[in-house]
Task: structure prediction
Amino acid sequence: MTDALTSQILTGHSVGATVQVVIDALFARIKSEEYPADTRLPSERTLASDLGVSRNTVREALDVLESRNIIRRRAGSGSFVTYRSEPEIPRGDRSVAENTSPLDHLVVRGILEPEMVRLAVINMTPRDLEDLGETLTRIEAVRTDAVEFVACEEELYRKIAKGTRNPLLASCYELAIQVCQQSFRTALMRRHLTPRRIQDYQQRYNTLFNAIASRDVESAVEFIKLHLVEEQKLLLQEG
Amino acid sequence: MTDALTSQILTGHSVGATVQVVIDALFARIKSEEYPADTRLPSERTLASDLGVSRNTVREALDVLESRNIIRRRAGSGSFVTYRSEPEIPRGDRSVAENTSPLDHLVVRGILEPEMVRLAVINMTPRDLEDLGETLTRIEAVRTDAVEFVACEEELYRKIAKGTRNPLLASCYELAIQVCQQSFRTALMRRHLTPRRIQDYQQRYNTLFNAIASRDVESAVEFIKLHLVEEQKLLLQEG
DNA sequence: CGCGACTGAACCGGTTTCGGACCAATTCCC
DNA sequence: GGGAATTGGTCCGAAACCGGTTCAGTCGCG
Result:
């Protein structure tokens, strides 16, 4: 991790060199969970003497950390870590995957995929399209291997997600993919993935790719919606 | 490495031999990341004594480095490295937060929130609504404390997300919240959070809550869409 | 000698850091 | 309940430090 880069991101405004050192030191301790989430960190006066700087300098650093929602301060009480090092997917409940039903999953896909496809059609470069084409070729090469097919499908969707050039959107979709992998749905799907059905999907993805490659936004979006409805039907049929 | 060539490139104008040596020495340290990007380099006086030359010579060298956009100087503060050894390529696997622009974030919110609100209105229990009401009360108690307000806002959205009863959707939204926290957008927003604007938002959230509580799906969804459009305007105005 | 490069020093105005005092909120403990 | 201790919030002035500027002096070389 480039500390300098982290600093740049954390700081925003220009700040004294000593303050920057303190910011980096504290943020490092928080990231490393030396100061775990939701715990109180040492008092400003303690930190000042520990770090060998004045309290005002510590306070300036804490100002920055607070403005970044990394800590939260309460007068008379202390400063508390609010930063979550790893996007807390497994939370108080069980893992998300275990509690996400196939329907839940399809709902989220229904929300994300149309807009995702729209943005991808708009933002994908020729290079991206070429890359996507290769995945399509891989998909079309499959005959009966359901495992290979699912892997290819995943790759296809991932590339579309990246093609949006929206990292956050891509991450959301990645989350959906992972939940899908970890849930029982995969096993369920595999039962349905007969060679006949694989062929069917291949044709669909081919159509989708053509719409994307020809920059036909509306067709691509409509197609993915249609595809989702089909999936939904399938789920309701066999759930 | 062709020092002569480097010198030639850096110098442009003719410069004293000693100055050239200092330029080369400093540039070498910067390239080798002994002085990493965005860090302050030693003071002119320190450099002068370290390199065994006068401060004026150091300054002449720094003049050249500054004119080449390798460093940037701030009176009273210091000289800072702006040179990037690796012209930062957008790295796919870097932290999502670092690569997500405020617009990206708003786009994802625009995708998730309307459906999220719709599902929440349908699925929230009376107990959930009561809980949401408490958060609203907390929001309405805020007068000027922007930090507290943002924290409350977050809680409100989180409760709505949970209210969908779709763990995957809630996790996606959680991802968005965290990216927002960790990106520079928060600081940006806080500038706009005048007491006047806080009051404005309070009224909006009150309206939203009433729509949700009365199970008025369409009003709630339309309202959140409107809210998002407003946020978008704000971003474009002041970005 | 003259000229340009370099030196050393002083001074300026700005920024940053420091140390401390005082307040208000919270917590602790009797 | 109440006072003491602790914590963050605020403010201030002094001191240290920084780059910006100027200038008289020194050195080396043509």
The interface with chain B takes residues 2-5, 7-9, 12, 14, 16-17, 20, 66-69, 72, 84, 87-89, 93, 96, 99-100, 104-105, 107-108, 111-112, 115, 119, 162, 166-172, 175-176, 179 of chain A (CB under 8 Å). Residues 1-9, 88-93 of chain A have pLDDT under 50 and may be disordered. Residues 43-45, 59, 62, 73-79 of chain A lie near DNA strand D (CB under 10 Å from a C1').
